[in-house]
């Protein structure tokens, strides 16, 4: 099962401020819609995917490519959903 970062989850990274996942952006999928894809064999590093993780920190929004997000930069600290 592939599990996307979910809105409301808090992620921590050493040397960086904590971020809260606001949503996942993808063509045709609302950015604020929580979802899971249990049947999907996922490779976040393939260029054909254009999914971004949208995060919020001190009212500043940042969009991070999914592959970079999963590359160990951020680790889930709290699941508040």
Automatic annotation (TrEMBL):
Name assigned to this protein: Uncharacterized protein
Organism: Salmonella enterica (Salmonella choleraesuis)
